[in-house]
Write a structure and sequence with these properties.
The chain has helices at 27-33, 58-61, 68-71, 74-77, 109-115; strands at 22-24, 40-45, 53-56, 87-89, 92-98, 104-106. The chain has 127 residues and is α+β, with helices and mostly antiparallel strands. A four-stranded antiparallel beta sheet has the order 3-2-5-4. Strand 2 and strand 3 (53-56) form a beta hairpin. The protein is globular. The model is unreliable at 1-5 (pLDDT under 50).
Length: 127
C-alpha cells in the first residue's frame, strides 16, 4: 500500500458512499489499525486540496502528536457531542461516529453537505 510520504499516512484507496449513506472501510485498513476495536471512530476534514475526510480512533489519536485535538476538546474526546456533529478546531473539523464490527460507518445528509460529498450511483452491466 502506498504512503503519502515516508513514515507518513497510508492510502488505502477510495470508499464509495452507498445509497443508504453507508461507507464500508477497506478491510486492509481495518486490520492494520484495528479500526473497529472501540466501536467509534473520529472523522476529520481532509486538506483543502484533496477534500474528503480521514478516519482514526481514540486509541491511535490520543497518544499521537495530534492528541491535543482531543485533550483540547474534551466533549469530543468523551463522545459528548452528538454523533456526526462537526466541531471546528485549528483549521479542520472533527466529529465521531459509530462503526460496526465489520467496518461500516453511516453518514447523514448534513455530514455529506458539510464534507461536500456526493453519492455516485454505480450501475454494472453483465457481459
Amino acid at each position: 500500500m502506498p504512503q503519502m510520504n515516508k513514515g507518513g499516512k497510508f492510502i488505502f484507496g477510495k470508499s464509495l458512499i452507498r445509497d443508504d449513506l453507508t461507507i464500508h472501510l477497506p478491510t486492509q485498513a481495518l486490520t492494520e489499525y484495528n479500526t473497529t476495536q472501540e466501536g467509534k471512530v473520529y472523522l476529520f476534514t481532509g486538506s483543502k486540496i484533496t477534500g474528503g475526510f480521514c478516519v482514526t480512533r481514540k486509541g491511535l489519536l490520543e497518544p499521537s502528536k495530534l492528541g491535543h485535538i482531543l485533550t483540547d476538546n474534551p466533549t469530543l474526546q468523551n463522545y459528548q457531542t452528538p454523533e456526526g456533529e462537526f466541531i471546528k478546531y485549528k483549521g479542520r473539523s472533527y466529529c465521531w461516529v459509530n462503526i460496526s464490527g465489520n467496518g461500516i460507518i453511516r453518514l447523514n445528509q448534513q455530514m455529506l453537505g458539510f464534507l461536500n460529498l456526493k453519492i455516485v450511483s454505480v450501475k454494472y452491466k453483465s457481459v
